[in-house]
């Protein structure tokens, strides 16, 4: 099962028999069986035929729209699952409550511990790096998580931990022509931030699909507050995956020199940086390979892919909210 | 499960119909040979669709199942390359 990425502008998505076809300039560019597709991501403009819309909805395949540069626009969502009990449990735990506090702790602990492990890995590979101050600051943010009793102070810990991590992110970049000073977005103005933003947009497509599949209402989160049109729960669950999926892909794309500074272009007015078509394709390939790569899930003790891990974590979240388990274990990888 | 499907259908119209259905379930490898990686349900659906199309007295379709250890031993020289199903690009 794979994701279909459409980067060809003004292409036409049609259906023949039980296959998806992509046509542009009177040529058929792709013809794949629908049973092999589990997600569709459209970059830029594309026409989707009514038959495809119905077919995707019936087969529970999510369709996301991104701009050319990878900014998230929206998605076509199949019906919420009929499992009302999961949603009822989700609403009952609305903050402030003990379960909400526990989950926020879990999300933040997962994210910060993965940040710490990413830095430790950098230190193992290149012992000469001065990552120790950042690691100390991360430790200081991780230690008080269990004794903090308000969600707002937990958000503060997350902020200081992230600041420490992104403060030394530049040291992990080992290729000429790439620098990272601070995180910027909307729009990202340097190549590294452009890659991070694109990666997070793709990750959101995948995590939101998993959250929906399990039966949650993606708009009610615990760490992220309610805001019109913001899928807070998907963003919550994304936190622990940011460093292990997206940041890892971005770093390997740069450090293994899959992408070079020539793969980026700058928009003159807003200084927004984005990938060229060729660069975008190499990055998407890396991201997809990462998603399909296997590891041993530390809680379930079985082999799984990152793609499956999104759903596993969402199911663990549901189990906790329904009272079937005592704790929500965030995914922390060494 | 991994299947090799071959068919022998004298009528052109029926053959192209069968071909069209099979293309939605697997990959066309040789003139009348397909390779498909299907679940039980998908196989059942494919078989019922095909059985509605053929005339049993003239046509034949064979399904050969490969076990997972034999699947790795398939050798292919020349011709159609196996499709990468982890990512589709346009």
What does this protein structure show overall?
The complex is a heterodimer of chains A (334) and B (90). Chain A is α/β, with parallel strands linked by helices and 334 residues long. Chain A is built from eleven helices and twelve strands. In chain A, strand 2 and strand 3 (19-24) form a beta hairpin. In chain A, helix 7 (191-214) crosses helix 8 and helix 7 crosses helix 11. The longest helix of chain A has 28 residues, at 98-125. Chain A starts with a strand and ends in a 13-residue tail after the last helix. The model of chain B has no long low-confidence stretch (mean pLDDT 89). A four-stranded antiparallel sheet of chain B has the order 2-3-1-4. The A-B interface holds A 1-8, 11, 16-19, 22, 24, 29-37, 281, 284-285, 288-289, 292 and B 20-21, 23-26, 38, 42, 84-90. Chain A: Homodimer, forms a heterotetramer with a Cas2 homodimer. Chain A: It comes from Thermocoleostomius sinensis A174.
């Amino acid at each position: 099962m794979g994701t279909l990425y459409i980067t060809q502008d003004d292409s036409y998505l049609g259906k023949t028999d039980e296959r998806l076809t992509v046509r542009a300039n009177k040529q058929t560019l792709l013809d794949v069986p629908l049973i092999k597709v589990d997600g569709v991501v459209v970059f830029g403009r594309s026409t989707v035929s009514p038959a495809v819309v119905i077919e995707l909805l019936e087969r529970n395949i999510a369709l996301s729209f991104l701009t050319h540069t990878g900014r998230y626009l929206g998605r076509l969502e199949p019906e919420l699952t009929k499992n009302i009990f999961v949603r009822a449990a989700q609403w009952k735990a609305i903050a402030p409550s003990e379960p909400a506090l526990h989950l926020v702790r879990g999300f933040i602990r997962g994210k910060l511990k993965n940040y710490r492990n990413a830095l430790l890995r950098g230190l193992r590979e290149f012992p000469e790096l001065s990552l120790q101050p950042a690691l100390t600051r991360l430790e200081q943010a991780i230690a008080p998580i269990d004794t903090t009793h308000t969600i707002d102070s937990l958000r503060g810990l997350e902020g200081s931990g992230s600041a420490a991590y992104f403060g030394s992110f530049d040291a992990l970049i080992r290729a000429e022509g790439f620098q990272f000073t601070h995180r910027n977005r909307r729009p990202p103005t340097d190549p590294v931030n452009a890659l991070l933003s694109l990666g997070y947009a793709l990750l959101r497509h995948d995590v939101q699909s998993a959250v929906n599949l399990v039966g949650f209402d993606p708009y009610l989160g615990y760490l992220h507050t309610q805001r019109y049109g913001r899928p807070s729960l998907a963003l919550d669950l994304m936190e622990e995956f940011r460093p292990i999926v997206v940041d890892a892909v971005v770093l390997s794309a740069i450090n293994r020199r899959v992408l070079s500074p020539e793969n980026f272009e700058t928009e003159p007015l807003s200084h927004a940086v984005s990938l060229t078509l060729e660069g975008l394709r190499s990055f998407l390939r890396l991201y997809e390979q990462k998603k399909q790569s296997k590891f041993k899930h530390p809680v379930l003790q079985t082999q799984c892919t990152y793609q499956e891990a999104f759903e596993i974590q969402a199911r663990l979240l549901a189990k906790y909210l329904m009272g079937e388990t005592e704790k929500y274990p965030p995914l922390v990888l060494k | 499960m991994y299947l090799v499907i071959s068919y022998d259908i004298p009528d052109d119209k029926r053959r192209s119909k069968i071909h069209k259905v099979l293309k939605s379930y697997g990959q066309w490898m040789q003139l009348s040979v397909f390779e498909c990686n299907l679940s039980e349900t998908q196989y059942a659906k494919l078989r019922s669709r095909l059985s509605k199309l053929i005339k049993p007295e003239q046509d034949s379709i064979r399904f050969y199942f490969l076990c997972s250890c034999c699947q790795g031993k398939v050798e292919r020289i020349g011709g159609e390359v196996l499709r990468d199903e982890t990512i589709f690009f346009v």
